[in-house]
Structures are given as structure tokens and as C-alpha cells.
């Protein structure tokens, strides 16, 4: 139990720390950050349940006003901003990534983590992000989806990094990749 709480807290801190990497904000108000890499790693390393809880804790801390998002942002106002869908989608993305990782046990860890990151950390997160953009900006879903295409190259790089990092961690400390335990 204590180990689980510690790991959840550490990965919440990882998502926050990745927000310190300078962001690039696109014209429609959504920044490109490294924080979704942390969400992907929550799922591939911690698994579905713990990854979900780590990302949910992060979102809760942001809602309380802690300036943990890239650019030092926090507070309830973010849940009405163009980024709202992505923020709300973090826990679901971590869960889906972890669930995929758990289900892809037949694949090598790096490949499984990369695929899981694309399905959960990109596709599942985009569902929420596109929905949020559509609602907040008052645009049709198709138009909001076109805006999100700007993120695809960076997010695919993050998915590859997730695969490489998870595989390296598994090689160094197999028991630390809980999605494979």
C-alpha cells in the first residue's frame, strides 16, 4: 500500500516536473508541452489503475490552484480554457495506456509501451482534447480535430520516447514496471 502511494505521488510529480520544460503555445490557445509524456509513462510503468490515480491526483492539484501546468498555470479557470479537454483527459489517457500495456504482454516491453502510448496517450487523449476544443471554441468537431493535427508529430515522438524509457527501466529494474508485474 505505501509503495503504491509513493509511486503514484512520484509520477504525479513527474507530470508536474515535465511542465517546467518551456512550452510553445499555438495560435488557438493550446500549448505544446512535455506533460503528456508523463501521462504516457504513468500508464506504461504504473499500469492502468495506478497510472489513472497519478494523473487524477495531478488534475486535482491543478484544480486546487497549484501552478503545475506548463507555464505555471493552475486553478479552476483552466477547466473552461481551450486546454480543458486535454486536462480532463489526462487520467483517462493514463488508464487506457496502462490497460493497453497490460494487455500487450506478448510484445517486447518497448514495443508494447510505444503502441500503448499511441492508443492511450495520443488517441484517447485527443478524443477529450478535440471535444474540449470544440466546446470551448464553439467550433465543429471536424474543425477542432484539424487544429489538433499540429500535435501529432510531437506526440508520436513522445510515444517513441515512452517506449524507449519504459524498456530501459524494465531492463534495469524489471519489478519497477508494474504494468508487467
Automatic annotation (TrEMBL):
Protein family membership: Belongs to the BioY family.
GO molecular function, one term: biotin transmembrane transporter activity
Major localization listed first in the record, in broad terms: membrane
Subcellular localization: Cell membrane
GO terms for cellular component: plasma membrane
Any Pfam family hit: BioY
Transmembrane residue ranges: 51-69, 76-101, 113-137, 144-170
Keyword hit for Transmembrane helix: yes
Family annotation (Gene3D superfamilies): 1.10.1760.20
The protein's name in its UniProt record: Biotin transporter
InterPro entries in the record: BioY
PANTHER family for the chain: BIOTIN TRANSPORTER BIOY, BIOTIN TRANSPORTER BIOY-RELATED
Membrane topology (UniProt): Multi-pass membrane protein
Keyword Transmembrane: yes
Keywords: Cell membrane, Membrane, Transmembrane, Transmembrane helix, Transport
Amino acid at each position: 500500500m505505501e509503495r503504491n502511494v509513493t509511486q503514484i505521488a512520484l509520477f504525479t510529480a513527474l507530470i508536474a516536473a515535465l511542465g517546467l520544460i518551456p512550452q510553445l503555445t499555438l495560435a488557438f490557445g493550446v500549448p505544446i508541452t512535455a506533460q503528456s509524456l508523463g501521462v504516457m509513462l504513468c500508464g506504461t510503468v504504473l499500469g492502468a489503475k495506478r497510472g489513472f490515480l497519478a494523473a487524477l491526483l495531478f488534475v486535482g492539484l491543478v484544480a486546487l490552484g497549484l501552478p503545475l501546468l506548463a507555464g505555471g498555470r493552475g486553478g479552476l479557470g483552466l477547466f473552461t480554457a481551450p486546454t480543458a479537454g486535454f486536462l480532463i483527459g489526462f487520467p483517462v489517457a493514463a488508464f487506457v495506456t496502462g490497460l493497453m500495456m497490460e494487455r500487450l504482454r506478448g510484445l517486447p516491453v518497448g514495443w508494447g509501451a510505444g503502441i500503448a502510448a499511441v492508443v492511450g496517450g495520443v488517441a484517447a487523449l485527443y478524443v477529450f482534447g478535440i471535444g474540449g476544443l470544440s466546446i470551448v471554441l464553439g467550433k465543429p468537431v471536424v474543425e477542432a480535430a484539424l487544429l489538433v493535427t499540429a500535435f501529432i508529430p510531437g506526440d508520436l515522438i513522445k510515444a517513441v520516447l515512452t517506449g524507449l524509457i519504459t524498456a530501459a527501466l524494465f531492463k534495469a529494474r524489471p519489478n519497477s514496471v508494474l504494468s508487467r508485474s
